[in-house]
Write a structure and sequence with these properties.
The structure holds two protein chains of two kinds. Chain A is built from no helices and eleven strands. Chain A is an all-beta fold. In chain A, strands 2, 4, 5, 9, 10 and 11 form a six-stranded mixed beta sheet that branches. Chain A has a five-stranded antiparallel beta sheet with strand order 1-3-8-7-6, with no helix packed on it. Chain B is an all-beta fold. In chain B, strands 2, 4, 5, 6, 9, 10 and 11 form a seven-stranded mixed beta sheet that branches. Chains A and B meet through strand 4, strand 5 and strand 9 of A and strand 5 and strand 10 of B.
Chain lengths: 111, 116
Amino acid sequence: KQEVTQIPAALSVPEGENLVLNCSFTDSAIYNLQWFRQDPGKGLTSLLLIQSSQREQTSGRLNASLDKSSGRSTLYIAASQPGDSATYLCAVRRGAQKLVFGQGTRLTINP
Amino acid sequence: EAGVAQSPRYKIIEKRQSVAFWCNPISGHATLYWYQQILGQGPKLLIQFQNNGVVDDSQLPKDRFSAERLKGVDSTLKIQPAKLEDSAVYLCASSLGGRRSYNEQFFGPGTRLTVL
């Protein structure tokens, strides 16, 4: 059974810092991994999707890496801003099977 | 391109009452998903449709939950009767589809259900 863990559960940093969010999964046989952002009371917004054959994806100040063999992914946020405050979720997918989500990291960027 | 639409956005009911949620996926998306997200947790898949057929409903509490997607487009999720532990956000998502699709899932805003 696939299990996804995100550490830390909560993170608070001053504005401008670079930061890394971690995601680990127990079954390395995945097709892709997706990072989402969730604002309070809102749905999920997809940030980055990494196929199993890829090592990383970049979008603006965000960079996500994937190491399938070790069952790990990281989301790097450069030059953090207060608007980055949200909960960040990672999820892994294996074929037609469901996305399995981590419990999320609640990020607060302090002005 | 319009996103995934859900209604209502909020619903408050008493335990043992019934409730229904509606989802309209992105046009052309064959696969539709319903997730349950309890406060402080990640979403958990309840049911996955490919067109109007069920692909996975292994985590759907079938004694009280039901879902349908009659014409392969819109979908409804029903809870009857509701319990206190059903309080959660119910998220609908869609993707282009295919049983072994690598496609990205797009999520709606969710319906926040409170059961009193």
